[in-house]
Specification:
Number of strands: 8
Low-confidence stretches: 1-7
Number of helices: 0
Radius of gyration: 14 Å
Mean pLDDT: 89
Strand order of the largest sheet: 1-2-3-4-5
Oligomer: single chain
Largest sheet: 5 strands, antiparallel
Number of domains: 1
């Protein structure tokens, strides 16, 4: 999975995405991943939602969907979470996340700041 260095839309930091493995609400981390670019020496960061259940390493961003991280010597390698990235926002082309609706039912939502697109389960 290729990582985007410039994001066309900002990831909202007020979401409550559900982890596709265990259904727990994932928490927002402004500096979820950090690495140093070998060529320039600059530190890069990636904001993401992260499942905080012990032993779970799933993360979510609107541009990469649900993924886990394989640490490599130079940069983190993102591995798509199998079967979790199934729907994209028709407005932005970004990955939807699973969330609980106000009625308690499961649904899909866009992760772009300010977007109200939802889709029923």
């Amino acid at each position: 999975m290729a990582q985007q260095t410039t994001m066309p839309y900002e990831l909202s930091h007020t979401l409550e995405p559900l982890c596709p493995r265990d259904g727990h609400v994932m928490g927002y981390e402004k500096k979820s991943l950090q690495w140093k670019e070998a060529a320039s020496g600059t530190v890069q960061t990636l904001s993401a939602y992260h499942c905080n259940l012990e032993g779970c390493s799933v993360r979510y961003t609107h541009t990469d969907g649900y993924f886990t991280v394989v640490e490599t010597p130079d940069i983190p390698y993102l591995v798509e979470e199998p079967g979790a990235n199934v729907l994209q926002c028709p407005r932005h082309g970004t990955w939807l996340h699973q969330a609980r609706r106000q009625t308690g039912e499961l649904g899909w939502r866009c992760g772009v700041e300010g977007c109200d697109y939802t889709r029923q389960q």
